């Protein structure tokens, strides 16, 4: 893509809005996790039905993401982002007053549509407004914002859950004032006009930029590994008689904090290394961390493994986003970015579907060991491809 933008991020408007908006896809599910048990007991729902309230938005998000990308490519970021934030706020906040379970699920599906526009709009908005070292720096900040959101929003949901299971739904209303702010964003610089046929669907997009398939595969693998840790680390700790929820939460919080630190240091690393090298380091650190989670029974080592995993994630998130932007064809950055979200959701869903039955049939050790094998295999492929050139 040929876009001329200033490289000094201090003079770019809307940065805070776009970074806050980047945390909203994390907020989407995490703010409700503390009240899942309340939904079961107070609404008399099954665990599956309660869990759907937290996760079902991902279905519509993944399905609508390519359409959201096409809209952003055609109309720019400002208006689609504002519409997405408004729908995010209204549909998400509807849980404060909705009574009937089917209606609540319907609002969550609409909420996923808004979340798709928010993810695509904020990501493309940042990519369109920055170039060179400024873009590397901002992508690192985005990674940090996302990881901090993973710590802050569950705490907010837990604090509001003391009042009522409905109270955390009010947090989604944040999307409404953010939508008004998004309308005040200046028109972003756009790519050169796409060639004929560039407005076709995802198959045409991937035909024009086949390198994106590798990026999406890496995104799916990274998300699968992330959710392996999120889902099965508490099980691993329980096997060591570590069941205190505050202690268990400290492991995931430490991982998120490490991701934040890596995000802040991403620009400095990117100044010396290419994205493929950073991804190689990410998958290598994940291999070591997952092996430790599988084989070691010392709690402090498991904590160190969680921190190491977070460091790798802090490198992978901005690297994969930048690779997507760089490999997107002219006029297709929005669709390319949206498909990155679809790939991530695919990995999220695949993690429990693939590793859950393995855990049930064997043990949590073998579950982490299998994840380590996957991470190691990807790292070996990346190492085999070379590309050790410094930037």
UniProtKB/TrEMBL annotation:
It is a multi-pass membrane protein. Keywords: Cell membrane, Membrane, Transmembrane, Transmembrane helix, Transport. The chain crosses the membrane at residues 15-40, 46-69, 81-103, 109-127, 139-163, 169-185, 205-230, 242-266, 278-296, 302-325, 337-360, 366-384. Residues 14-389 form the Major facilitator superfamily (MFS) profile domain. InterPro entries: MFS, MFS_dom, MFS_trans_sf, MFS_Transporters. It holds the Pfam family MFS_1. Its main location: membrane. It is found in: Cell membrane. This is MFS transporter.
